[in-house]
Amino acid sequence: MDQTNDTRAFEFVLVGLSGSWKTTIFLIFTFSLLYLSIILGNLLIVFLVTTDSHLQSPMYFLLANLSLIDVGLSSTTVPKMISDLLKERKVISFHSCMTQACFIHIMGGGEMVLLIAMAFDRYTAICKPLQYLRIMSPKICILFVVTSWVTGVVHALAQFSFVINLPFCGPNKVDSFCCDFPRIVQLACADGDRFELVVAANSGFISMGTFFLLFISYVFILITVWKRSSGDLSKAFVTLSAHITVVVLFFTPCMFIYVWPFPTSSIDKYLFIVDFAITPALNPVIYTLRNKDIMVAIKRLCKVTGYYKYH
Q1: Is the dihedral angle over the CA atoms 215, 216, 219, 221 positive or is it negative?
Q2: The sheet that has 173-174: what strands, in order across it?
């Protein structure tokens, strides 16, 4: 019990991103701009899907939920990272560190399930168009969203319940700008390699499992389109291009961080930037520029706001 109390009172020092004053100013400006674009871009998609009757379809319902998760994932890490750039000593309490790590894995696990749901939606739309509305019913869409959150919570709590009971009595420097379970486990006063393997296996399994399911869905789609269009796959690639781009951007860092962890390298904190700042900022752009319905919805919104502005 005393050991647990000591552990809970422990503080971690985040090494984060450091450099000259000019570099710090550049990083603050860059990440602030990225975070602003994340909030505005993703909330714009949520607003359009919620208010525009032309976007009331399963695909856009799932996209809106993906945007909400992107906002949550970025808000868990980026504001803290920006504020730490202004501090000489970047400290986070044990409780805050555990909370941040939990939210990262809740959002990350939920996003993986949503990407599977979106892939299934595209598979149904392309391979079974006549049954699309029956298969992708409102109940199924809500079930996908609920499953994504439940999966994220279970995934995070499975690691949290393991890490929270570890003894922390030695080094307290985390070579990252945020808390993540694999990095925290390295600081435990115990058999670090064995514990790292357990934590990495948890995240690595869900990452590899999700990526494998996505890969299988793409194969089925491409084979179906190839058979129906006499070898012409251009339609399928156009339809899937936005989703494949988002999947590659999201899963590439996850593969390096969790499937092949680098316990002695700081490369993961730069890969985290891709998942927490760059990908959530690019997702609205990718789905907007490659989606005619959303572009039309934006034009309708501009016309409506312009009308009320001048009347």
Answers
A1: negative
A2: 91-93, 11-14, 173-174
Q: Measured between alpha carbons, how far is 62 from 68 in angstroms, rounded to an integer? A: 10
The alpha helices in the chain, defined as continuous H runs, are 2-8, 21-51, 58-85, 94-127, 132-135, 138-163, 181-185, 192-228, 234-254, 267-273, 279-289, 292-310
d(CA 244, CA 213): 13
Q: State the DSSP code for 164.
A: T
Residue 12, SS3? Answer: strand
- Give 14's strand partners: 174
pTM for this model (two decimals): 0.85
CB count within 10 Å of CB 292 equals 7
Class of residue 77 by CB neighbours under 10 A (exposed 0-12, middle 13-18, buried 19+): buried
Q: Could you tell me if 25 and 264 are in contact, meaning their C-beta atoms sit under 8 angstroms apart? A: no
pLDDT digit string (tens) for the chain, length 311 residues = 444 444 444 678 877 666 677 888 888 899 999 999 999 999 999 999 998 888 888 989 999 999 999 999 999 999 988 888 888 778 888 888 889 999 999 999 999 999 999 889 988 888 888 899 899 999 999 999 999 999 999 989 988 888 888 777 777 788 788 888 877 887 777 665 666 666 666 777 778 888 888 888 888 877 777 777 665 666 667 667 777 888 888 888 887 777 765 555 567 777 778 888 888 998 888 887 767 888 888 888 777 665 455 45
The distance from CA 102 to its chain's CA centroid, rounded to whole angstroms, is 13
Alpha helices of 54-93 — where are they, by DSSP H? Answer: 58-85
Give the length of the chain: 311
Q: Which residues pair with 174 in a beta bridge?
A: 14
Map out the domains of the chain with their CATH numbers. Answer: 2-310 (1.20.1070.10)
Query: What's at 178, amino acid-wise?
Result: C
Contact 186, 196 (CB under 8 A): yes
